[in-house]
Specification:
The N and C termini lie far apart (61 Å). The protein has a 5-stranded parallel beta sheet with strand order 5-4-3-10-9. The model has no long low-confidence stretch (mean pLDDT 91). It is an alpha/beta fold and 262 residues long. The chain is 37% helix and 15% strand. Helix 4 links the parallel strand 6 and strand 7. It has one domain: TIM Barrel, CATH 3.20.20.70.
Length: 262
């Protein structure tokens, strides 16, 4: 399977996993390991960046060699998101950020105007920006053209587990942007992840689908296999769809059987 390349980094795994809402830290670590992921997202507003002895999700990830991708979850304005990203860069020594600017508490859809404003400012400050966006080709194209390292359209609302609701928009986005397209949010089970990859998406980011499963470690392994299968199927190229049957055995060269009826 080909590597995932984002900005100047390459990754073997095309599965990105969030670190929130697991039953306990040990389950989180086992699930992350089973998923084969190399990139783990951490919400900056929920992390203990001071490492002062309080509950600290980052301490559980130390030594596991994951690439930590801080995100601005919980931010509702461009100003909040930019400040959160700046704090994360200082505390974690990384200029990468998964940019989230949410419009409301119920849908958790992005606020497009604030998202574009925050992305533009962070790019000017030399951040590698991966923005969570609506599955809107126009918005994703604007984000890509302004210099975002990837675009991350939602498959369905965050935490809904509804799967890929609009595959056609995702295909349009994939055709219109030159940066990686990463489905972010909405995946509920392994078949959803496989469908996203078969559509030609470069990667899938998920959290609740694994952390909220009855058996997170088993689901993490299922997601790993689904991502690999979906990507390989995309690279292989599926057969064309046909309205009518088409025999798999060739019709030419058949043995002719004489009609003995009299």
């Amino acid at each position: 399977m080909s590597k995932l390349k984002i900005a100047d980094k390459e990754f073997d795994s095309r599965l990105i996993v969030g670190s929130a809402r697991f039953p306990d830290p040990e389950t989180m670590r086992r699930a992350l390991n089973a998923s084969g992921t190399e990139i783990v997202t951490v919400a900056l507003r929920r992390a203990n960046l001071e490492r002062d002895g309080g509950e600290d999700i980052l301490s559980y990830l130390d030594g596991d060699n994951y690439f930590i991708l801080p995100n601005t979850a919980g931010c509702y304005t461009a100003k909040e998101a930019v400040l959160t990203a700046q704090l994360g860069r200082e505390a974690l020594d990384t200029n990468w950020v998964k940019l989230e600017v949410i419009g409301d508490d119920e849908t958790l859809f992005p606020d497009v105007a604030e998202l574009l404003k925050a992305a533009e400012q962070l790019i000017m400050e030399d951040f590698v920006v991966l923005p969570y966006a609506n599955d809107d080709p126009i918005t994703c194209k604007k984000l890509a053209e302004m210099g975002c390292a990837a675009v991350m359209p939602l498959g369905a609302p965050i935490g809904s587990g509804m799967g890929i609701r609009n595959p056609y928009n995702l295909q349009i986005i994939r055709e219109q942007v030159d940066v990686p397209v990463i489905v972010d949010a909405g995946v509920g089970t392994a078949s959803d992840a496989a469908i996203a990859m078969e559509l030609g998406m470069d990667a899938v980011l998920m959290n609740s689908a694994i952390s909220q499963a009855r058996h997170p470690v088993k689901m993490a392994q299922a997601m790993k296999l689904a991502i690999e299968a979906g990507r390989l199927a995309f690279e292989a190229g599926r057969m064309p769809r046909r309205l009518y049957a088409n025999a798999s055995s060739p019709m030419e060269g058949r043995i002719e059987v004489a009609n003995t009826d009299e």
